């Protein structure tokens, strides 16, 4: 299996890779993402799977009758964060295809259809809302709001999808499709070091922390860096800088996570006080009440600082995801003899969990690093992940 994994992994590894950073630039519906999607379609057709794309941009490949109901779905995503690692997303897709190979060698046909899904825009790196494809499918995201989203170049979802040859007519909640799913299992690289510390190649996710993304607009008065007296300034960069520190402090005090990893400055000139600083806060906590109180505290401190700086600040929630418990976790952990672990990362499985019995498998990542080029999993551990996924799919699809 290790050799098979290596071969399939290599066939995807060069697409969208940035040689300078060693990371991946696979923004949804970009040329690199479309090449990944084409790769997937070819691999699926090689396995005699029936391929379709839904109006939410998600790709599906079916072994067995998709209309039959009680289908067992596996898969993940192929889009990446800017300069992301190779494994976050693609590992779940590659593992799904290899598990299908194993099962096709063992069985003529599945008792219940097995589907491999590639969800669109899981990272939210192009349009801002993570798990966009699965949120649309489950009705958690409104098509009108989706069509109003713009990427960094001002391109909307409709044009991006149309340009990719995907018809967005019928975008949105798809209860008929959801109703045909009996279970969803997503395999994913671990985004921490828990499995390395436990000396286990594969683990089972128990829960995902609630998390949210907020956009701050800090507004001020653009002016000359050399002639504007310090006392006369309305500098939104100061309010922004204070807010970054406040978010870090509030998260530490609450045992939560807060990150401001994206910022845009206008006009972005060395010798001008900015007119506008836009920045994004990603916040996560074990409890929803903690997440809410951290967000409220950061907002309050940003507003207080804005009053001192003579600037303006608004904070809007771009996405919010409730806590998730995976109902199949205990059963799978027993089945595989694998440890259970919670995670702070978001996943399409988390979105689906409110609608269908869902589980996640994690594959050990010895670096513990994710959303960066150092993300890694050994071929042997990935092969072990494929073995575990095969066992789970076989149990679920033939019972
Ligand atoms: C997705 O990977 C997220 O947790 O942001
Ligand atoms: Mn990710
Ligand atoms: Mn992912």
Describe the structure.
The protein is 37% helix and 23% strand. By secondary structure, it is of the alpha/beta class. The strands form three sheets. Strands 1, 2, 3, 4, 5, 6, 13, 14 and 15 form a nine-stranded mixed β-sheet that branches. Strand 1 and strand 2 (59-63) form a beta hairpin. Helix 9 packs antiparallel against helix 10 (288-309). The model has no long low-confidence stretch (mean pLDDT 97).
Provide the fold topology.
Elements: H1 2-13, H2 31-46, E1 50-53, E2 59-63, E3 71-77, H3 90-106, E4 114-119, H4 132-138, H5 143-147, H6 157-163, H7 175-179, E5 181-189, H8 194-198, E6 202-208, E7 211-219, E8 223-224, H9 236-254, E9 257-266, E10 272-273, E11 276-284, H10 288-309, E12 312-321, E13 324-325, H11 329-336, E14 340-343, H12 348-352, E15 358-363, H13 379-397
Parallel strand pairs: 3-4, 3-5, 5-15, 6-14
Antiparallel strand pairs: 1-2, 2-4, 6-13, 6-15, 7-11, 7-12, 8-10, 9-11
Helix pairs in contact: 1-3, 1-13, 3-13, 9-10
Q: How would you summarize what this structure contains?
A:
By secondary structure, the protein is an alpha/beta fold. The protein is built from 13 helices and 15 strands.
List keywords for this structure.
399 residues, alpha/beta, nine-stranded mixed beta sheet, four-stranded antiparallel beta sheet, 15 strands, 37% helix, binds glyoxylic acid, binds manganese (II) ion
């Amino acid at each position: 299996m290790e050799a098979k994994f290596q071969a399939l992994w290599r066939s995807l590894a060069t697409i969208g890779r940035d040689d300078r950073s060693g990371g991946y630039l696979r923004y949804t519906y970009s040329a690199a993402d479309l090449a990944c999607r084409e790769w997937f379609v070819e691999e699926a057709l090689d396995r005699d799977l029936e391929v379709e794309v839904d109006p939410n941009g998600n790709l599906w490949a079916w072994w067995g009758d998709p209309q039959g109901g009680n289908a067992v779905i596996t898969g993940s995503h192929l889009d990446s964060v800017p300069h992301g690692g190779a494994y976050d997303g693609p590992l779940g897709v590659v593992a799904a295809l290899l598990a299908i190979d194993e099962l096709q060698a063992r069985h003529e046909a599945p008792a219940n259809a097995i589907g491999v899904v590639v969800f669109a825009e899981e990272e939210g790196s192009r349009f801002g809302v993570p798990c966009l494809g699965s949120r649309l499918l489950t009705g958690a995201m409104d098509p009108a709001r989706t069509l109003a989203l713009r990427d960094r170049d001002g391109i909307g979802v409709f044009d991006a999808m149309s340009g990719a040859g995907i018809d967005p007519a019928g975008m949105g909640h798809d209860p008929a499709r959801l109703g045909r799913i009996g279970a969803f299992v997503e395999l994913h690289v671990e985004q921490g070091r828990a499995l390395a510390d436990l000396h286990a190649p594969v683990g089972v996710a128990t829960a995902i922390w609630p998390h949210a993304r907020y956009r701050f607009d800090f507004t001020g008065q653009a002016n000359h860096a050399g002639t504007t007296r310090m006392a006369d300034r309305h500098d939104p960069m100061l309010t922004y800088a204070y807010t970054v520190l406040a978010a870090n402090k509030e998260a530490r005090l609450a045992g939560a996570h807060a990150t401001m990893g994206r910022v845009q400055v206008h006009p972005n000139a060395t010798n001008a006080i900015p007119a506008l600083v836009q920045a994004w806060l990603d916040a996560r906590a074990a409890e929803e009440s903690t997440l809410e109180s951290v967000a409220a505290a950061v907002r309050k401190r940003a507003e207080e600082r804005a009053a001192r700086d003579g600037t303006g600040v608004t904070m809007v929630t771009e996405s919010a995801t409730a806590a998730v418990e995976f109902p199949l976790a205990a059963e799978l952990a027993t089945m595989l003899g694998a440890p259970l672990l919670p995670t702070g990362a978001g996943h399409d499985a988390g979105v689906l969990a409110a609608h269908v019995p869902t589980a996640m498998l994690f594959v050990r990542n010895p670096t513990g690093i994710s959303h960066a080029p150092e993300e890694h999993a050994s071929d042997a551990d990935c092969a072990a992940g494929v073995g575990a996924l095969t066992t789970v799919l076989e149990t679920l699809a033939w019972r």
